[in-house]
Amino acid sequence: MSKHRLKKLSKIFGPGIITGASDDDPSGIATYTQAGAQYGTGALWFSLFIYPLVTTVQEMCGRIGLLTGSGLAGVIKKKYSKKTVFPIITLLLVANTINIGADIGAMSASVNLIFPGFPILLTTLLFTVTIILSEILIPYQKYIRILKYLTLSLFAYFITALIIGANWQQVFTASIIPHVEFTPAFSMMFVALFGTTISPYLFFWQTSEEAEEDVAKNKIKEIGEGKPHITKREIKMMRVDVMLGIGFSVITMWFIIMTAAGTLYTGGISDVITADQAAKALEPLVQTFPNSGQIAKTIFALGVIGTGMLAIPILSGSSAYALSEGFGWKQGLSKKFKEAKSFYLIISSSTVVGLWINFMGLDPIKALYYTAIINGIIAVPLLIAVIKVANDKKILHKHTNKRLSNVLGWLTVAIMGFSIIIMVFTWM
């Protein structure tokens, strides 16, 4: 590929790619692994099923941010009021902080796979301090470039899925024909899969980063100040960016489920409780090597650490964007600490509170799974707000939702809402 084509392609890659990569965070890895371990290839259909839904949601968020030059909280505040936006921000802060805590715990547990006996307390503290300082001191785009290399370890699932072999006719059938059970365990899994893929923090992150792009291109001076002039081509590029980013996320999901189905499920491990059990999914990749178990653990650990280091700044960043817009504070990862002190203090404090959650005696891997369920519940009211904004002609003018976007958007709300009701009733 020529340098010209690579440069042209890199211009397409924007917030959508970053959002897609962060969607396969430790919570995603844990949830997809649990799905494959518990239901085998019966969970594969979810990957293809959810792709148009999550793409539609993130395209709405991207369009809102790009065309308004504001984050989602700022737009909702203008459309409704502070009384409306602050309950939404509160839900986001709760979900994000729990998620941060679970991610830090999973990263620390993963380090223990590589260095058994290494103090968990020290590891959690080191991760917390490193992430906070990196967000404050390192320009975000540079930070992201570094972390992308760590997330490449997720490709181990792609290779493992091919190595273990499979009845590809069965796999194909399982990928397109839904497998549904009306049981407490399945309903929880369904909500968790939705929650870890269509996550509230991704709504706010995508919107704010598109607004950040407007600032970077000198279309507006500050996020939430001014109306950017956006061309049809820029909207098209945003959509391609989202489709590619979510596409990568969903393909990764499919391969993680496939790998877990072919290893853990067939090996009789149906409930993934520890990081050690989750890492066993990658053992076939290196089974011919000496110390194959340890190598598999190392690859798994690098994947969790890499995606965690990528996702936590996005989780805390989305909280900071939302709260800053709610109160009208200066915001943006493009700004230095002295220019947006409140913004960076929110990032720091939410990460520290997340650290504290790890001392409540929760199992990191299980915590990630329950975090996904919480995200699935909270996502429903937030998604309704996104759809309402995306249909407001006063905000988006001629670029409001088309019929297909509305159908898929409300379908997502209906499915997620119904699955939560089923989950509640199956547990009663």
Describe this structure in words.
With 428 residues, the protein is mainly alpha-helical. It has one domain: Amino acid/polyamine transporter I, CATH 1.20.1740.10. Helix content is 76%, strand content 0%. α11 packs across α17. It is globular, with a radius of gyration of 21 Å.
Radius of gyration: 21 Å
Name the CATH homologous superfamily.
Amino acid/polyamine transporter I
Unreliable sequence segments: 6-10
Report the CATH architecture: Up-down Bundle
Total helical elements: 19
Determine the fraction of residues in helical runs and give it as a percent range: over 70%
CATH topology-level fold name: Amino acid/polyamine transporter I
- What is the distance, rounded to the nearest whole angstrom, between the alpha carbons of the first and last residues? 58 Å
| Percent of sequence in beta strands | under 5%
**Care to count the β-strands?**
0
Q: Topology as H/E string? A: HHHHHHHHHHHHHHHHHHH
Instruction: Let me know the largest β-sheet.
Output: none
Coarse morphology: globular
* Overall domain count: 1
